[in-house]
Amino acid sequence: MMRPVYFVNGKGQYPLVKITEVKTYLMHAGRPGGWAARNWLFIRIYTDEGIYGVGEASGWPRVVQTAIQDLTPLLIGEDPFHIEKLWQKLYLAMMGHGMTGIVGSGALTGIDMALWDIKGKALNTPVWNLLGGKIRDRIWAYPHAHNAERAQELVDRGFTALKTGGVTGVVGKIDSIRKAVGPDIDLMVDAHGPPWLTTRDAIRLGKALEEYDLLFYEDPVAPEDIEATARVADAVDLPIAAGERHAHMYGVRQLIEREIIDVVQPDTGRAGGLLQMKKIAAMAEAHGIMMAPHSGSLGPVAAYACLHLLANLPNTLIMEHLEDDVPQRYEVVTPVPQVEDGHILVPDTPGLGVDIVEEAIAHYPAQGNVSPPNPDQEYVYIQSRRGRARWIKS
Ligand SMILES: [Mg+2]
Predict the structure, then answer these.
(1) Rounded distance from Cα 38 to ligand 1 centre (Å)
(2) How many angstroms is it from 42 CA to the middle of ligand 1?
(3) Packing angle between helix 83-93 and helix 274-286, nearest 10 degrees?
(4) Structural fold of domain 130-361
(5) Which active-site residues does the annotation give?
């Protein structure tokens, strides 16, 4: 068993652990036929006690990598245990850049995550224990199903909740999935908040989906338009989910405080870190809103961090789970998370319970990280209006 190196003695003193180095690892994780421009960014923070922590940062990873490198001098020599203090120090250091949004938040996330990992390893306890202990030993999870055949395959593997996405033809898709898997499987639809979809069309789409009794209707409009999200929520009799594109607690504050949404989806890799996620979850809990963190852009380290958080929270709903989107997902970390009856097991090992495999990451050099616009999107809008939104039933 690892020796706990960090303790408070009878005089309230403790041996200092100091941060000595921060390393970043950027790799390609694009999905052919899907999000081809995706990269993942991992970090390691090293200490003078020989312990290092791992983290992951999303939110335009190539830019976030530069942000972390800029912030690194502010971390060297610091005590990694004081996560809140360091978060505030770095947040203030970015103030001169203005509202850094998801990039600044992504950088803070990767650093926060690695600090939690260090603390857990140093105290020889899982991160969920530091967050307040755990309520559950496994987390209900949902993968993505793009058609009825895939949905059935996932249900056969034990999953009891599935999400599908898009706008064009999504009603027909959810209809065929519901017919294939039956009434007992929970289904979700993610419209991905396309800026070309009008609020009225998002309402029309939501109304067409009402009969499928969804667990939630996600990002029906561009989530940065809070008033439009509120209009959809008022008009559609389905739980509304949003939050994946927002940075830290201020990003989702109005959505939560005005009770516009029913499910909040902060991204574990870019919402600001586990402390911010815990604060978001507390705000949500006070308003009867459930947590279903976003993972679509993330790699496997952030997924581990999410497990520790959701093990602790009273208002955990479900976790987004991608396991076979790209073959390298589980080549670049160890160990691989365990799935059982549609749930992911919460690790009991010290820290986050995961590490990156540097040699494997080196096989996937980072590529461009911006997707070209889909030329069909504007066309879909024009066609839908001229065709009286026929796409809803297509
Ligand atoms: Mg989404």
Answers:
(1) 15
(2) 22
(3) 100
(4) TIM Barrel (3.20.20)
(5) 192, 294
* Cβ contact 278:117 at 8 Å: no
| Distance between CA atoms of residues 258 and 75, nearest Å | 37
pTM greater than the 0.90 cutoff:
yes
Ligand 1 centre from 255 Cα, in Å? 16
Bond from prior residue into 372 cis (ω within 30 degrees of 0): no
Q: Which two tokens mark 101?
A: 């949004």
CA–centroid distance, residue 292 to ligand 1 (Å)? 11
Residue 45 CA to its chain's centroid (Å): 21
Please identify every residue whose CB atom is under 5 Å from ligand 1, which is an ion.
190, 244
- Whether 138 and 344 have beta carbons less than 8 Å apart is answered as yes
CATH class of 19-126: alpha beta
The residue ranges of every structural domain in the chain are 19-126, 130-361
Angstrom distances, CA of residue 211 to CA of 174, 199, 208, 214, 237: 10, 20, 7, 8, 9
CA of 251 to the centre of ligand 1 (A): 16
Q: How far is CA 332 from each of CA 36, 43, 212, 322, 327, rounded to the nearest angstrom?
A: 18, 13, 38, 14, 10
- Residue 161 pLDDT > 90: yes
* 134 in Cβ contact with 310 (< 8 Å): no
Question: If you ran DSSP here, which 8-state letter would residue 4 be given?
Answer: P
- Between residues 217 and 37, the one the model is more confident about: 217
Number of residues that make up the chain:
394
User: Which secondary-structure segment (H or E) carries 378?
Assistant: helix 376-386
pLDDT in tens, 242-289: 999 999 999 999 999 999 999 999 999 999 999 999 999 999 999 999
CA of 2 to the centre of ligand 1 (A): 39
